[in-house]
Amino acid sequence: MTLIHRKDTRPLKVGNVMVGGKDQVVIQSMTTTKTHDVEATVKEIERLEEAGCQIVRVACPDERAANAIPEIKKRINIPLVVDIHFNYKLALKAIEGGADKIRINPGNIGKRDKVEAVVNAAKEKGIPMRIGVNAGSLERHILEKYGYPTAEGMVESALHHIKILEDLDFHDIVVSLKASDVKLAIEAYEKAAEVIPYPLHLGITESGTLFAGSIKSAAGMGAILSKGIGSTMRISLSADPVEEVKVAKELLKTFGLASNAATLISCPTCGRIEIDLIKIANEVEEYISTIKAPIKVAVLGCAVNGPGEAREADIGIAGARGEGLLFRHGEIIRKVPEDTMVEELKIEVDKIAEEFIQK
Ligand code: SF4
């Protein structure tokens, strides 16, 4: 399924990565290391990049973290977002240090001259700002108006921060409206997409551990993506952030929104199974996780229904007694011995991925 994705958001650049204005959703994640620990932070960012993370965010809670930004920036390849809560001095330091984007809510910075200082610095460097609305920390006047966090209140909060930036003629804005309540997040993003022309950063906050959080995030962000909303996203998990990237990639593949990742099709297995499918499927999944082409690879337990069931696969393997059947788009191309079938599949996968990349 290829979705009609919302392209009419105002495009902007985070480093060399375009966000908004196109039919693609950029994958982000956030480091879990202490930002002032440059070695550990850079190492984690390298792992995230390898997994497919396109933009990375670091927390900047204090001066030590802000001082580490130039060195981190020098040693990584993907754009760096610096997350600041309200301290304008840290924001200025992060911008000066080479941040490709900052995440700060202008309404929380304080006096107008401080807001102006941050906006001017961002303008000078040509970097965008993300306004991060969170259902759990809405402004008091909004909570008093609505009584509790609502989608309307979240959008109102976003518009309040947007206005501060627009009044200063700043328009390189990204907006997120995170909530841990999935229904609330869906509603907030839907309402925001109607009135906010800037790219939306999707997120379900505090979603939980790897298993539960992935399902919750997929349910929420899947609903939002299915409406064509979202230009960038982060899956938030209480897990290794590499897992966040893997989940994001898988989710985007589901909607045909990832142009640089391979998909595995594997059968659920049944009594007709002829091979150790679960082991093979996991091995193949691991293998294709670094392939940067949108190919589909199938692993099926038997040849009875297998190749026909996985007709959309660019390449696949079906177990037969003592051997494997290699097939392309549902047609068997040759038989391979059981003990080498996974290796043969990998060789074919590489060939097809190469063809896609050459195209
Ligand atoms: Fe069963 Fe074969 Fe279908 Fe797998 S491919 S579910 S083993 S019939």
UniProtKB/TrEMBL annotation:
Q: Name one GO biological process term.
A: terpenoid biosynthetic process
* Metabolic or biological pathway, per its Swiss-Prot or TrEMBL entry: Isoprenoid biosynthesis; isopentenyl diphosphate biosynthesis via DXP pathway; isopentenyl diphosphate from 1-deoxy-D-xylulose 5-phosphate: step 5/6
Question: Which GO MF terms are attached to this record?
Answer: 4 iron, 4 sulfur cluster binding; 4-hydroxy-3-methylbut-2-en-1-yl diphosphate synthase activity (ferredoxin); 4-hydroxy-3-methylbut-2-enyl-diphosphate synthase activity (flavodoxin); iron ion binding
Q: How is the cofactor bound?
A: Binds 1 [4Fe-4S] cluster.
- Taxonomic superkingdom: Bacteria
What are the binding positions for [4Fe-4S] cluster in this chain?
A: 267, 270, 302, 309
Keywords per UniProt: 4Fe-4S, Iron, Iron-sulfur, Isoprene biosynthesis, Metal-binding, Oxidoreductase
Q: Name one Pfam family in it.
A: GcpE_C
Q: What is its EC number?
A: 1.17.7.3
Domain IspG TIM-barrel, by residue range, is 9-249
What is its EC class?
Answer: oxidoreductase
Reaction catalysis annotation = (2E)-4-hydroxy-3-methylbut-2-enyl diphosphate + oxidized [flavodoxin] + H2O + 2 H(+) = 2-C-methyl-D-erythritol 2,4-cyclic diphosphate + reduced [flavodoxin]
Which residues are in the IspG C-terminal domain? 264-350
InterPro entries xref list: Dihydropteroate_synth-like_sf, IspG_bac, IspG_bac-typ, IspG_C, IspG_TIM, NO2/SO3_Rdtase_4Fe4S_sf
Necessary cofactors: [4Fe-4S] cluster
Q: Is the keyword Heme assigned to this protein? A: no
Asked whether the UniProt record includes Repressor among its keywords, one would answer no
Q: What does this protein do?
A: Converts 2C-methyl-D-erythritol 2,4-cyclodiphosphate (ME-2,4cPP) into 1-hydroxy-2-methyl-2-(E)-butenyl 4-diphosphate.
Task: Give the family from UniProt.
Answer: Belongs to the IspG family.
What HAMAP family does its record include? IspG
User: Under what name is this protein listed?
Assistant: 4-hydroxy-3-methylbut-2-en-1-yl diphosphate synthase (flavodoxin)
Source species: Gracilibacillus orientalis
